[in-house]
Specification:
By secondary structure, the chain is α/β, with parallel strands linked by helices. Strands 2-1-6-7 form a four-stranded parallel sheet, with helices on both faces. A hairpin with a 2-residue loop joins strand 3 and strand 4. The chain has a domain of 95 residues: 3-Layer(aba) Sandwich (Rossmann fold). It contains five helices and seven strands; from the N terminus they run E-H-E-E-E-H-E-H-E-H-E-H. The chain is globular.
Length: 146
Amino acid sequence: MNVHIIADSASDLPLSFYEQNNVAFLPLQVLLDDKQYEDLRTINPNEVYHSMRAGKVPKTSQVSPETMQQVFTEVAQSGKSGIYIAFSSELSGTYQTAVMIRNQVKEEYPKLDLDVVDSKCASLGYGLVVMNAARMAADGASVHGR
């Protein structure tokens, strides 16, 4: 693959998709019963659904900046290009945080070639964008047509 594809769990794709398609995964945070979870890693959608049916109100928050920094640094160290397709900026601060973190990583790795794209999508619509990007990357597409 010429390009690293990165997406977050707001795409509603299963964790297996990320693993099978070499897409870097960034989990949103889920707060339930005063405990913090990483979406799809330490809590699954069925648990969230059943807690809601039981009258609980889970809350979500954006990907942790530390997780973003780790993944973006890995892209920088690889020397390859990357694209982070972010959850819609209209629904979350994830896109803005990603731009900030990318700029911080770029200070240490000036050659970092990472585009942060506002998907302007959520849920399965966002997932379809990620699926198409992964397919294109697997077919040899590059970020800048190089």
